[in-house]
Amino acid sequence: MSKEIADLKAKGGSFERVAGPATTDTMEKKPLDPNIVGQEIVLADAWQKLNTDEVGIMGLYGMGGVGKTVLLDQINNK
Fold it and tell me: Ranges for the NB-ARC domain (predicted)?
């Protein structure tokens, strides 16, 4: 691999920039039913925790089909 790098440099390869500028974070509102049946308490709890200075990141886990993605979309839209 070192030989390949040396060959590329000898051919005039430019390696000053190896990555482009960082992308900006964008939020996109997801079209959802405004009511999430049975998860109102979970949404309220998650939202309250995320709005404290003590929580910087939160993980969502559970079996498939329990509504993790819907909950995340609701948090995103809020």
Answer: 43-78
- With 0-12 / 13-18 / 19 or more C-beta atoms within 10 angstroms meaning exposed / middle / buried, residue 74 is buried
Alpha-carbon distance 78 to 74, whole Å? 6
C-beta separation of 69 from 36 below 8 A: no
Rounded distance, CA 31 to CA 33, Å?
7
Q: Tens digit of pLDDT per residue, the chain (78 long)?
A: 888 878 877 887 666 767 777 777 777 777 776 666 778 888 899 899 888 888 888 888 999 988 888 888 888 888
